[in-house]
Specification:
Mean pLDDT: 94
Oligomer: single chain
Radius of gyration: 19 Å
Strand content: over 45%
Strand order of the largest sheet: 3-2-1-28
Distance between the termini: 30 Å
């Protein structure tokens, strides 16, 4: 009897902690939950008005959602999907990044040209940092000393020192920068420019000083150049490959992390936007806003293996940690 009870408890725990992907559906105002073992949608719940940016607490127990039209960040339990509370975010939060310790959140406020710094423990705003026009992309350096914001209309990456929340550097990139992603070793930052059609490669010195070193462009036979609109960027931990979502081109570009040459394009759903790895980087999930689905990419094979219908206009995706 004891063995049976122990086995049952293990199975219950395994089910509770099974891998999940959470998808924000911008137009449907919902969050879809995908079981990453079966690749099936297991739940859909209210995410507030126009949910976009989405992230998790480091331990995976809390889900943070930018409810853009509610001017707030909604916080949910990742097991019960119950909304626990909201956090102040400033107007129109779009994207954010969480400190590796779990606090604070660094939030881009698109309408107010601010980055809002919110303490997730005290639920108080620690700082408001004026940045360029239409801030969107957010990234934090691996050493946690720098937070980067991209401003869509100013066409800059702003480097904010986390010790005093002051901008120390600005780097001009191509038109409408959408996303920023550091390499795991912190030596490079990649910034996608949606209208410019490029990814800017910014080298980071030991003291944090950024220098624009080159720009990566894209060319897909049969696809109009104006459809090649880089948005989401994800880099493998070993730095060997860089994946870039190309928006209405319906492709994910695969870039060699050493040569920075584009090696392949993976066909996915329509208007691919954001992406997330599963914990072991076996799979990469993409949100496809116009086809209302998620594409599952086998990372080793660099091949799309499954499409999962979700809610209306999926925007962001995040996967629970191991």
């Amino acid at each position: 009897m004891k063995l049976i009870l122990t086995a049952a408890l293990c199975l219950a725990a395994s089910g509770a902690l099974a891998g999940k992907a959470f998808v924000s559906n911008e137009r449907g105002n919902t969050i879809s939950v995908i079981d990453t073992d079966t690749w099936s949608v297991i739940e859909e719940f209210d995410g507030g008005n126009r949910p976009r940016g989405i992230t998790l607490s480091p331990d995976g127990t809390l889900l943070y959602v930018c409810a853009s039209d509610d001017d707030t960040v909604r916080v949910f339990d990742t097991l019960s999907y119950e909304e626990l509370y909201t956090l102040p975010s400033g107007p129109d939060p779009e994207l954010f990044v969480i400190h590796p310790t779990g606090s604070p959140l660094y939030i881009a406020n698109e309408d107010d040209n601010l980055v809002t710094v919110t303490d997730t423990q005290t639920h108080r705003i620690l700082a408001e940092v004026p940045v360029g026009v239409e801030p969107e992309g957010m990234a934090i350096s691996p050493d946690q000393q720098w937070v980067v914001n991209t401003s869509e209309t100013t066409n800059m990456a702003h480097f904010i020192w986390t010790a005093d929340y002051q901008i120390k550097h600005n780097v001009l990139v191509d038109q409408r920068p959408r996303y920023a992603e550091y390499s795991a070793d912190g030596t490079r930052l990649f910034v996608s420019s949606e209208i410019g059609g490029t990814v800017s490669v910014i080298d980071i010195a030991q003291d944090g000083t950024p220098t624009l070193s080159q720009k990566i462009s894209f060319d897909v036979p049969g696809v109009l150049p104006e459809w090649l609109q880089p948005v989401g960027v994800r880099i493998t931990r070993d730095g060997s490959r860089i994946f870039v979502a190309l928006g209405p081109a319906n492709r994910v570009a695969v870039i060699n992390g050493q040569s920075l040459e584009v090696e392949d394009y993976i066909m996915v759903g329509q208007r691919v936007w954001q992406m997330a790895f599963t914990p072991g980087e076996d799979y990469l999930l993409t949100t496809n806003g116009n086809s209302n689905d998620i594409t599952v990419i086998d990372v080793a094979k660099e091949k799309a293996i499954k499409s999962i219908p979700v809610g209306q206009q999926p925007w962001g995706v995040v996967v629970t940690p191991d």
